[in-house]
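ok so heres the complex, two chains, lmk if somethin looks off
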Amino acid sequence: MTPTRWLLLALTVVGVSILAIAVGTIPVPISAIWDAVRGTGDTQLTYVVRALRLPRVVMASLVGVGLGMSGAALQGTMRNPLAEPYLLGVSGGAAVGAVLGQAAGVGGVFLPLAAFAGAIVAVLAAFVVAHAAGARGDPRVLLMAGVVVGAFANAAIMVILANAEPNTVRNALWWMMGSVGEAAWPQIAVLLGYILIGGGALVALGREIDVLALGEEAAAGLGLNVDTAIRRVFFVASLLAAATVAAAGLVGFVGLVVPHIARALGLRKHRPLLLASALVGATLVVSADLLGRVLRPPAELPLGAVTALVGVPFFLAKLRRLT
Amino acid sequence: MSVFYFAALFSASLLGACQHSEPRDAGSVRDDFGAAVIVGAPPRRIVSLNPTTTEVLFAIGAGSRLVGRSMYDAFPESALAVPNLGAALRPNVEAIIGAKPDLVLLYASQDNRDASERLRQAGIATAALRIDSIAQFERDTRLIGRITGDSVRANMVVDSVRATLDRVRAATRSLARPTVFFHTWDRPLITIGGGSFLNELVDIAGGRNVYGDLPGPSGIVTVEDVVRRNPDYVFASPITAKNLRADPRWQALPAVRAGHVLVFDTLVVGRPSVTLGAAARSLADLLHPGAVR
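and the predicted structre for the whole thing:
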């Protein structure tokens, strides 16, 4: 990909973000955004931009970065174009971890770790189920295992909530539909930390993912310890997904769609592919959040619902090509 | 705002309100599901799964005949001694039948349609009553009085509530009417619409609900839209008020920045019941201190 294309990709993120800050129930003139961000413009617009729009746009872009990179790494490692954290049950497991964590009083920096613990359990469970089905090589079997694990995670959450206060239940169900509407800076800082660590680690693992993408035998032939490498990638990809779940709930299909768009840009090697996925992911989730806000105003559609509306047809098209 | 009314409002706003029908003055009347309720010999074992009907039963002197209530029915305090049968929406029908009632009062939410039919099939007189507005409270209180044979006291309760409401209305009539945002739930953000008793109470207390144009008893809204409607005051429960002041998002609302968050008493304001008069008065005291004598 040429530097010009990279620049265009980055400018798309900026452009969509500016649009997302400007458009909403209260229109903010694009010319007034910079003044509002600096706090030198109209007081009311400053509050709207600083307290409401900017946090959610930043949060949405970080969620997109995390899910996009996570999906790109999983698809490459598993050589499965349908792999992504939501469909693999990783996000569902993370949700269980986060709900249990919150019930135990875990918050702030540690909440993503509780989600991460749940995600890891889900990943292991999906692998065990797929292995027991005796078709480890078939990408569709692992997906099915992931979907089953995700359904189990959902049931587990319902069981946990059965004895919870009605208030807690409603809040938890709302959170599970995915939303960046309540974004606040402390939360964003935590997510940013995890994205920097996890994203950096994935880029560092980029070469290994390239080798894994050749297939297990070829990778072993090239001297790579395949099992260790796969585990490492899964570990980091799950951490990224878990951090987004802890911050914004379940936002599905982003990890599925984004890497395909990045590959359509002509990228094959995973370092650039991961970086492009980060940018495309940010664009996609910021756009989805914007769409959710403007489709049926003044109500807002849950972010997870919007991404599913985009992602499910995409998934079906890809599934058709696979069979 | 009690959890029950939140749940009821939420289900009503999602599923749409059911049709209304006014009771007739014959030997049988129709409840809000359109089913006949026979008015005959006064019932002796009553199950009431709605904080309002339970409170009304105590107010009209029929509280001792209660053999079951919902987990939300906590008023008056003596109601807590009545066996708790659990949920008020999608209730446990077996538990209700186990209490051997000869009358069951339900809230007329779509969630309760199935339970209502099954109780009737079990041969138990069942009345599903929608109580969202002040008029419905008056109608249902009189109706419950007729069914239980306590019409005189039921009419007294209605008259007493009405007298207080009239007094508050008269005291605030000539005053300026500040606009109000009524915060009832956080995730999702829910407020009251034109179909709620709270909308009427705000009006009687001398305010104007900025979401009075919402058709149902409640609706899901967004912080941004509240900011756009720019209310003069925010009504909130004590816990919500604390959260609002601490939440940076709500700083976008001028009323919150100006400290115009009015904390209402959830025990008085949360339900359309015998406390309606006191509720109107307490809201008026917050909006127009000293206006109601």
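quick notes: Chain B is about 40% helix and 15% strand. thats all i got rn
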